[in-house]
Design brief:
The complex is a heterodimer of chains A (97) and B (417). Chain A is mostly beta strands. Helices cover 8% and strands 34% of the residues of chain A. Chain A has a four-stranded antiparallel beta sheet, with no helix packed on it. Classes of the chains: A mainly beta (97), B alpha/beta (417). Chain B: It holds the Pfam family DAO.
Amino acid sequence: MLLIPCPYCGERAENEFSYGGEAHKPRPEVPEEISDATWADYVFLQKNTKGTYYERWIHSHGCRRWFNLVRDTLTHEIHGAYRMGEAPPKVDEKTYV
Amino acid sequence: MKARYSIFSLARNALSSHENWPQAWRSPEPKKEYDVVIVGGGGHGLVTAYYLAKEHGITNVAVIEKGWLGGGNTGRNTTIVRSNYMWDESAALYEHSLKLWENMTKELNFNVMFSQRGVLNLAHTLNEVRITKRRIHANRLNGIDSEWVEPEQVKEWVPIIDLRGNGRYPVLGGSLQRRGGTARHDAVAWGYARAADALGVDIIQQCAVEGFDIEDGRVTGVRTSKGAIKAKKVGVVVAGHAGVLANMAGFKLPINSRPLQALVSEPVKPCVHCVVMAGAVHAYISQSDKGELVIGAGTDAYNSYAQWGSNPVTEDTLAAICELYPLFRRMRMMRQWGGVVDTCPDASPIISTTPVKGLYFNCGWGTGGFKATPGSGHIFADTVANDRPHPIAEPFSLERFKTGFLIDEHAAAGVAH
């Protein structure tokens, strides 16, 4: 069970939250002008990192607000949460084979 | 050719206290170069190597495995085999596989304990009834055995079930595939390993891939913990780590990796005679030949490479099991574990060439790869050998995420992706 530090409500159990996948993936500004490959990249392709991962979460059963989380996908260590639009915290990034 | 297993070899070896059985496969050091290197020594990878040698005459093949044979998802799943998928593309793939299951023990001379005890998929809501019936019709048009069963027939198949489902999720019927069932997962890995080894394939365990050698857009080898190995072609079949290997090769996949968990209870007398899947409440159950209940739970809600599952998921599944089978409320669970599954957006796998020449990926099987083991390896071997997708594999290429021809099997897959 993850204990997730919602930037608005503090630490809560993981089943109060819903997952939003990879963060910092901006939607293409003018979708009709980009290629199918670029669109597929935005819609489907994932970094899916084994290690430090920047990801979106929403506190569905709490404040119902979106925020970003930095988490290690192997050890589940949480490095910090930050509000949408804020810069991520400085983290010693890791990846594993 | 290896000594065949038979009643006579069993008797002969019994006389020497079973101390003289030959090794089922060798454990050689890797050679400098192979025609094909298969990355991943699970079921799918071993089947691929087997068919490369058997049907395509490519015997200079290595299977390299980070851990031990079948130690990944091959040994972590709930061993359900069925082929009742919705779309023509999937029906072709899974039915091809089911037909190979039916002859596997004989072909490998290795008992994989394939038991066609029937697979029941319960429907708990009106929407589920509609999609289940639609899928049954689609299955039958594709020549796959599939039939609708009313609640009273469900009760005949599974007498201990409580059809009321605590009122919230009553059993409204279900689909039944009589040819579906279970198999012994370790035996599948061992059987194919033995058969592939007999055809000259080198099986190298404890050998992790650390990178690919790529020159002018073509793969020339793999770098491993046991040194560099040259290869004309490389087939990657690594459930749970396809994204990690794609990153090494310099491209991204439409995959999220999540743990999928399962549980095993203490052994009891026979009481569940078929496989019962309940997608709406997420509780799958069957009984092993040892008497243990084998219970399949859901995937975690977030990406993770940890091979255990989240507690709320365990709790949800066991709650559903207790409502459907009140008899099991005091049953104790002996083991719980997770396997990392690579989930695709359309709940269908990727069997494909890649942006790198000579590098092929067979991945993204999500929560349901075990049932496809023989068919998947068979068509992947053909794809690797001929450097073009096998006709069954063609719709499952990476291209579909650009063209939009997704093969949405979320309902048939059962487990939420």
